[in-house]
Specification:
- By secondary structure, this protein is an all-alpha fold.
- The protein has one domain.
- The chain is 77% helix and 0% strand.
- It contains 22 helices and no strands.
- Helix 2 crosses helix 3, helix 9 packs parallel to helix 18 and helix 15 packs parallel to helix 18.
- The radius of gyration is 22 Å and the shape is globular.
- 50% of the residues are buried.
- It is found in: Cell inner membrane.
- It comes from Hylemonella gracilis.
- Keywords: Cell inner membrane, Cell membrane, Membrane, Transmembrane, Transmembrane helix, Transport.
- Its main location: membrane.
């Protein structure tokens, strides 16, 4: 068996392991060990795994992961999400479909300080869904708009997926963050246009009781002063973190530390952080961070194994033999990512695909920052598609309402999936949307 055949075998082994329920990180490590043992020997494979695990995350840069996760968790428990929703609910109260618009806008702002779609989905499921149902909106629309807009957390910086991509592609994480701003705004605007269109063209799809919605819209005790006070903490945190990062005052890791400290102070001032909640925040941060870092270790090991097999070079030769141009490669790559999104989670897709796809993208002289943004958007679609749909299951578990089934959420989120596909096509056709700000 040739080295390239071993590389092909590694992909089949990983997909089989995932299908039978093995954790993606364990699958990557075991597959890498087996393939190196086939190429060299079991002794060399053991040393290969040990050396790769030791070298993988020793860099100071990896401190950015637990720090941004900690900031997101502190923001989630401080009640900032509810206040943000209240402000946008008041601002959009006179617009048809206003609560849907408020949910998207609040999620976009919330994404600027969390970076985790699951956090956005869990917060706004508890905040926005009951409020929309009480105001006469359909259950499917209520859960669909929350699940759909939650993916903004993985695109608008800081983004956990952008960090993972930056590490795997050896691109600047700060530039990846900046590159996500315009596409994130474009995606949010796409969701807003979708909701307005549904409200005027298919009102029955979003409203069970239009009269009730109109009556509740007129009822609000909010004022400009109270709304400003509610919006002030999140604005300060965004300016502190993103302003310092883009202004060159902080590195991404330092921005994460400053953001976590700022979120901690806000939580203390709002008296929303008891000792029990603090312990839960710290343990949850540890769980998420260790999971992500373990996956990065396994991905780097897998990437080194593929390089040893010559698989990336073999893929480029196969593309040359098939006379596949850059557009054909990109379309095939995105279709595979979208298909994988139906069965495995977003980080796992990147860990499996990028070690193979990045060398090919480089051979076609593709801009790796643009390629990363396109990859993240394609991977995000998988958060909403059946049967896996992490954001969908997060909404279901956070809602805990027997009257709303998983099927209802998948049906409700379908228009948002279609909107994401349109935005993905736009980003592919117009690369400057992803790159011009990062290249300034």
């Amino acid at each position: 068996m040739s080295d390239v055949q071993v590389g092909l075998l590694s992909i089949l082994l990983i997909l089989a392991a995932i299908y039978f329920g093995m954790h993606i990180g364990v699958a990557l490590i075991v597959t890498s060990f087996v393939c190196v043992a086939l190429i060299k020997s079991p002794e060399i494979a053991a040393r290969f795994v040990a050396a790769s695990a030791n070298d993988a995350i020793r860099d100071y840069l990896f401190g950015v992961i637990p720090l941004f996760v900690l900031m997101g968790m502190l923001v989630s428990v401080s009640g900032i999400g509810r206040d943000t929703f209240d402000v946008f609910q008041w601002l959009t109260r006179r617009i048809r479909g206003g609560l849907g618009l408020a949910t998207v806008c609040a999620n976009a702002v919330f994404a600027a300080i969390t970076g985790i779609s699951i956090a956005s989905a869990s917060v706004f499921t508890k905040v926005a869904v009951p409020e929309m149902i009480r105001h006469g909106y359909t259950r499917r629309f209520a859960v669909g708009v929350v699940a759909g807009s939650s993916v903004l957390g993985m695109l608008i910086p800081p983004s956990l997926l952008m960090i993972v991509y930056g590490v795997l592609a050896e691109e600047s994480i700060g530039r990846m963050f900046i590159a996500g701003i315009v596409p994130g705004i474009v995606l949010a605007l796409g969701f807003l246009l979708l909701i307005v269109g549904m409200a005027y063209l298919r009102p029955n799809a979003i409203l069970d009781n239009p009269a009730l919605a109109a009556r509740h819209a007129a009822e609000s005790n909010e004022t400009w002063r109270s709304a400003s006070l509610k919006f002030l903490p999140i604005c300060l945190l965004i300016v502190l973190v993103l302003g310092g990062l883009y202004g060159g005052l902080f590195t991404p890791t330092e921005a994460g530390a400053v953001g976590a400290a700022g979120a901690f102070v806000i939580a203390l001032l709002r008296r929303s952080l008891s000792w029990r909640k603090l312990w839960n925040v710290l343990t949850e941060t540890g769980y998420v961070s260790v999971s992500v870092l373990f996956l990065i270790i396994s991905a780097m090991l897998y990437s080194r194994m593929l390089a040893l097999t010559g698989m990336p070079g073999g893929a480029m030769q196969a593309i040359a033999t098939l006379e596949m141009g850059p557009w054909a490669f990109l379309i095939a790559y995105l279709l595979i990512v979208l298909a994988l999104g139906c069965i495995i989670d977003s980080v796992s897709i990147m860990l499996i695909m990028l070690p193979i796809a990045l060398p090919v993208a480089q051979s076609f002289n593709m801009d790796l920052i643009w390629f990363g943004v396109v990859t993240v958007v394609a991977v995000e679609i998988g958060l909403l598609t059946p049967p896996f749909g992490v954001s969908v299951y997060t909404v279901k578990s956070a809602l805990n309402d027997p009257h709303i089934s998983i099927r209802d959420i998948f049906v409700g989120v379908l228009p948002f999936v279609l909107a994401m596909v349109v935005v993905l096509a736009l980003l592919v056709v117009v690369p400057s949307l992803s790159t011009w700000l990062a290249r300034l």
